[in-house]
Amino acid sequence: MFAAVRSELTRLRQPRLLVTWFGLMTLFALMINTIMVTFVSGGGSLPPGAPGVVFPTLASMESPSGLMAGLAAASNMFGIVTLSFWAVVTAGDYSSGLIRLLVAAEPRRWRLLAGKIVALVIVTAAATTVASVVNVFAVMPAAGAAGIATAAWGTDLVPVVASAWTNLFLALCAWGVLGLVIATLARSAAVAIAVGIGYVLVFESVIKLLKDVPSDWLLGTTLNAVASGGPATVAYGTALALALGYVTLGLVIAGAVFIRRDVTD
Amino acid sequence: MAVVTTTELTRRFGPVTALDRLTVELPAAGVIGLVGPNGSGKSTLIRILLGLIRPTGGSASVLGSSIGSPAHYASRVGVLVESPAFIPGLSARANLVSLARLRRLPLERVDAVLVQVGLMGRDREPVKRFSLGMKQRLGIAAALLSDPELLILDEPTNGLDPAGIVEIRELLRELGREGRTVIVSSHQLSEIEAVCDHLVVIRFGELVFSGPMTEMMKRTREHIDIAAEHAADTDRLEAALVAGGWAVTVVDDVLRVAAAADRAADLNRAAAAAGVTLSRLVVGQDNLEEIFLEMTGRVDGELANGRAAANGTVA
Q1: CB-based contacts of B209: which residues, under 8 Å, 6+ apart?
Q2: B88–A98: do the CB atoms touch at under 8 Å?
Q3: Among A54, A209, B112, B153, whose Cα sits 20 to 30 Å from the Cα of B56?
Q4: Neighbours of A19 (CB within 10 A)
Q5: What local confidence, expressed as pLDDT, does residue A39 receive?
Q6: Is B255 inside any structural domain?
Q7: ipTM
Q8: Cα B241 from Cα B178, distance rounded (Å)
Q9: Does B290 reside within a domain?
Q10: Chain B residue with the nearest C-alpha to that of A258
């Protein structure tokens, strides 16, 4: 499988792909911190069905974890970006016809799939790091300008940063697997991205607006709970277990389809 | 020893039978041409041999191993399936490096194949800037990467200019002389005729011919092409020749008469007797294309399969 990982990493070294991926992570980190700080310092609160974004309270912003609050706030946005790139990379093998060469060279298809996942996880770790660094450099001047107290941000700096990074990374990997699963089934990046965005921004928002329907189990909500380290409404362990269940189910489906299906493209 | 053996190999796609109980043995060493009309099952056969799709019935082996375990022979087989497929944003070298890593090959092989196909010097350019011919060369380079015993190349000269075609033809011959087996699927029958030692013809998924090219070419017949000085006399000339027992086919204003060269004078006399002056009399021999069309019935397989599917019958 190591050979498949190295091979996939070589193919992922496409300047345009990486610049776009990391660029969007940077853009969202800058944007969310600016909006979040302005919003929170003004005492605003989002409606319960607000799509894709969860802002902290002022008290939470001024706590040690406030430094990294932007990552959790925008985790679904980062998630959609990650889903999109995993889907583009996966579906690209079909649209380019490269899948024929890959399967002919390595007929043990599970190795190809595992190699792709590991390689994408490695790049996702780099993308998470980019978002984390940009977040830190964006939130400090924004908070200073908005009058948010930042004195506590130096407390437990390493654990706070490490925990925020890890939580976002885990959530993004799950988003990525979702993109890979849809792209494997549809063999189309456009379909995978449309389904992903439609699900988070439309389907989950509608479900959340229905007061009688519990929404804690929804994928976006679950992954947002993982990214934020477990909000008040959902225990972190529960969210993590649920996310793991989603990922396992997705991988079983994608694996079965990828291994069994004819390569006719 | 055979490099590829199929026994009753069958593959159906819905109502269409792409391969119909195909039984064939392809000999080791040399260049083997795989020809057939569009939709005849060539690509399906190649994909089954490579483990890309599974057969509906029958069995097959490649280099002595069953197609049920393609991992046993994948490292000994190089492929170019349909159009060359690469990541356009990556350089030619990076694309080959990624394949070399997947096959656990030393990166020196990348340099070797780049030299072999004449792409050294352009190897650091992104593939998106390559012409179709250069992509084709890169595809062949990818197929040669593992220094394979068996090469399966689908339309290897597609998109190449005449000089490139000659170069690839020489490369294929050389690969065959080196003791490798090269299976070439192509629509360009002149290329097949020029390069191949062995020929396999399939039509509607069934084997029509498998044997040495020399045996196939024994089926060629001499013919004499004639044309009347005045086009208006063509019908009269044809009628006179048919009445005289000659086998005639007309293409445009040229009459092709199935006859040996030593009948040219008789033919000329028959035309004169009909009161027609000939402006052309050329002795020739059928080429592979003509034999092929005769064997396969001048039918486009894809269209025939489409019609069969629409009618609810199996082609």
Answers
A1: B199, B200, B201, B216, B295
A2: no
A3: B153
A4: 10
A5: 80
A6: yes
A7: 0.85
A8: 51
A9: no
A10: B52
